Amino acid sequence: MIAPRRRRAEMPPERGGAANAAVNRIVIKPAWVLASDTGDHFEPQLFRLLRAIHDSGKLTVAARAVGLSYRHAWDLLGRWNAIFGSELVLLARGRGARLSALGEKLLWAEQRTEAGLFPQLENVANELNAAIRHARERATPVLRIHASHGYAIEKVPDLVRDHGSVEVDLKYMSSVDAVASLARGDCDLAGFHVPEGDLGAVLWAQYAPFFKPRQQKIVRMVWRMQGLIVAKGNPRRIRTLRDLARPGVRFVNRQPGSGTRVLLDTLLAAQRVDPARIAGYDTGEFTHAAVAAFVASDMADVGMAIEPAAAQFGLDFIPVVRERYVLAGHHATLASPAVSELCALLRGPQFERQMAAVAGYAADSPGEVVAASALFAWVGR
Q1: Are 182 and 143 in contact (CB under 8 A)?
Q2: CA nearest 103: which of 83, 72, 81, 82?
Q3: How far is CA 132 from CA 78, 125, 284, in A?
Q4: For residue range 59-68, what is the model confidence (pLDDT) as tens digits?
Q5: Which terminus of the chain faces fewer neighbouring Cβ atoms within 10 Å, N or C?
Q6: In 3-state terms, what secondary structure has residue 316?
Q7: pTM of the entire structure?
């Protein structure tokens, strides 16, 4: 059978160094293996080839994109066709190549696995990197960030690594857990999101027990859109949250405690939609991309996530609410050289270019440090 497993940790060389240079960091990624009577057989090129065929519609173009000869690509598909006893790619003269139903399911399964495991594997890798840094007794400052997953915060470690002088130890968790972690002193910065308007005032109640306005401030980052992700063309004609409770509509949810799920629950209560009537409400995916992968693989008709997750999988997006994604930290921490360097990078052109390329994201004076009440009028009332 086919089953995902953790690939061994990859240890890239230092930037610009030779292959035998000291390792810079550990990266852990999911891999797929074929479990058979004769042992495991790993074929990493298959998924890259399937994705390239899906995107280009031509086997010749796809083979070139993944660095294979046409003959090698053809032989690779032939081996896997024999393993599965069915074709993964359908070729038609004059119409190029397209994935079969099995090929589509296999591709979406691989992407769903990667999307769902990303935060957990990233957290494990960061813990290992921290242990290695400690063992080396490196003097490089380390900035600990606990944060809700998002496409802006995801870029921060590489941004700092490529253009700064500090190390970022990023750990993903729910928004509430991140702010609670900051209150306990377990991290230097907490990343969380707050919707605009009166809805934000309602949802702030989950952060209020842990946020101390006189002791903490906000680092601005981005605006982003939360909404409903549906299949291309929206075949189920889903328009609003009320449609989630329609008979036959399959929903995929985020995990309990996540900011997106708390947001959804608040919106459903405001519109008097009973979650018990929503098929799939009790599911719980850990990332926006995992929700999108569910919809893309036709395992659900709709999910709630941020817009770039829809764009990543070629799905349609129905905006529901705009929100701010911010960082919070204590006054002393925010004045430290490490955070000052991070704020300068957030204000710089590299981060601006990165955010301009992400669907549904817009810069919100990134890197500016302000009192929470300057962004959220209800703080301190």
Answers
A1: no
A2: 81
A3: 43, 11, 33
A4: 999 999 989 9
A5: N
A6: strand
A7: 0.74
